[in-house]
Amino acid sequence: MPENNNQQRKVQEEAEEVKVIMMDNMEKTEERKEKVQDLDERAGELKSKSFHKTAMKVQKQMKCDNVKASWKLIAVVGAMAAIIIIVAIIMWVNKKSSPEITHERVITPMHENGITPTTNGPGM
């Protein structure tokens, strides 16, 4: 029996060693789990900050693009208005400087036979 006791004690010692190693591993695993959770939280914060930063850049760029587009539209409308005004002024000046065309009917005298006298004709 002493041999059996000796073997049993050896097995118990080995089991105790394995138990200590397992407890140590469980503590390390718990510590790693806490560290991973901490890193995960920090990564989430960084992603959030990065997303916010990128969103602000995009928003600023969009505002700038909208302002540029507005100025281009204003320039085009202004140019068209200027062209229309210039054309209207030119037409007004030309109309003012040219003689007025009247729509009065000119009556030419008729000869006795119903023929209108001409200056270039045979017998005259």
From TrEMBL:
<protein>
    <recommendedName>
        <fullName>V-SNARE coiled-coil homology domain-containing protein</fullName>
    </recommendedName>
</protein>
<dbReference type="InterPro" id="IPR016444">
    <property type="entry name" value="Synaptobrevin/VAMP"/>
</dbReference>
<comment type="similarity">
    <text>Belongs to the synaptobrevin family.</text>
</comment>
<keyword id="KW-0812">Transmembrane</keyword>
<keyword id="KW-0175">Coiled coil</keyword>
<dbReference type="InterPro" id="IPR042855">
    <property type="entry name" value="V_SNARE_CC"/>
</dbReference>
<feature type="region of interest" description="Disordered">
    <location>
        <begin position="24"/>
        <end position="44"/>
    </location>
</feature>
<keyword id="KW-0472">Membrane</keyword>
<dbReference type="GO" id="GO:0016020">
    <property type="term" value="C:membrane"/>
</dbReference>
<feature type="transmembrane region" description="Helical">
    <location>
        <begin position="69"/>
        <end position="93"/>
    </location>
</feature>
<keyword id="KW-1133">Transmembrane helix</keyword>
<dbReference type="GO" id="GO:0012505">
    <property type="term" value="C:endomembrane system"/>
</dbReference>
<dbReference type="GO" id="GO:0016192">
    <property type="term" value="P:vesicle-mediated transport"/>
</dbReference>
<dbReference type="Pfam" id="PF00957">
    <property type="entry name" value="Synaptobrevin"/>
</dbReference>
<feature type="domain" description="V-SNARE coiled-coil homology">
    <location>
        <begin position="7"/>
        <end position="65"/>
    </location>
</feature>
<dbReference type="InterPro" id="IPR001388">
    <property type="entry name" value="Synaptobrevin-like"/>
</dbReference>
